Amino acid sequence: MLRWWRQMSARLLLAVFLTVTGAFAAPPPAVFAQLDQMIATLGEITGWQVKKRVPSEVLTREKFQRYLATHIKDGDHDKAVHAEELALKMFGLVPRDFNLARETSDLLGEQAAAFYDYRRKRLYLLDSTPPGEEQQMALVHELAHALADQQHSLGKYLTRGSPDADETTAREAVMEGQATWLTWAYEVKQSGGKAEVPEGMIDRLTRERDNPSDFPVLENTPLYMRESLLFPYNAGARFQDAVYRKMGREAFNAVFARGPLSTQQIMHPGEYFGGKKPPALDLPELDKILGKQGNPYRGIIEGSVGEFDHAILLRQYVGELQGKDAAEHWRGGWFRLYEHKKDQHAILSYASEWDSPAAARRYFELYQRVLKGKWKKMEVTSASESEVGGAGDSGRFSLRLTGTSVQSFEGLP
Length: 413
Description:
Layout: H1 3-12, H2 35-46, E1 56-59, H3 61-71, H4 79-91, H5 100-111, E2 114-117, E3 122-126, H6 133-151, H7 154-159, H8 165-190, H9 201-209, H10 216-220, H11 223-247, H12 250-257, H13 263-267, H14 269-274, H15 286-290, E4 297-304, H16 307-317, H17 320-327, E5 330-340, E6 346-354, H18 357-374, E7 379-383, E8 387-392, E9 395-402, E10 405-412
Parallel strand pairs: 1-3
Antiparallel strand pairs: 2-3, 4-5, 5-6, 6-10, 7-8, 8-9, 9-10
Helix pairs in contact: 1-8, 2-6, 6-8, 8-11, 9-11, 11-12, 16-17, 16-18
């Protein structure tokens, strides 16, 4: 769902490595003396050839903040940011006063320790990154990206195939998950162990990552934004580990040669090996629903709603256990958002596909709880076993169950 967020974070911070930041002096040049050894060791682990040295430099946090400010446009002046922010609000994933551009800048600014710019082929280390192990792990993570980029163009990998937002999220999880896995494998190898991540270590390390208490911006951001930032690293590392356990060294190339098609394949690697493609869902145009009343509206954004999106939405309004169980039956999802040309009133058209009629009915029931939870006031004026209609904060709504599909219109005039 987060198309702009994904493109922005991937473009600006291909690797936002999560580590504690503080007020430290710029690291001495000796820090970079380890780079050749680091990337050579990563080459040994992956079997990849190191084709060239990676130019590296220290970046001050002040300059980095200016870099973010230059590249992240305010939603009041950028149509893509405005559309995505409005979509998040219509789904109830963020509050009505949420500012996506400002939150993106604050989050990336807080989290960054180092990053690899795949366009300039250059690695940057922020001067605020604590010296010692923190710097070393950040550099290894970024060098893992640089080495992957020498084998498989990361810029092309992100844009290859479908522009589908859920698939883009899955591809980013491949890149971040692999770099995270390799960072841990590097640490194990340096300690004298086998150059891989020991079984059980993944769960322990990702659980530690799930605690955002060291990062006040991350801790206080809406659940969906927080999980969207962590997902590529945590779920991506578990995915890489699963592919490695099955394929060995071939896994490092395989995930680039045949990228996952959805976040479901990241969350359930068995689905990736099965290679099942999510179905394309056809949403009716607004004029078929409203007739001439739909003329003043224009579509401003549309995209996929994956298992990850559904899991967070249900977790937020229904509960983590029920939400996770229900979301695992996802097979497809799509939304389209319309906006009135004059008064900016929004209408959300949204459909989801499930693996059985029973799973669809379960989601039909749970989504009614989502509607009630995200609105201050919800009035049901008609209800049957397969259709519910009424009014909420944004206008009239219609929720319908048909076989394995659930479809909703929200904000109808």
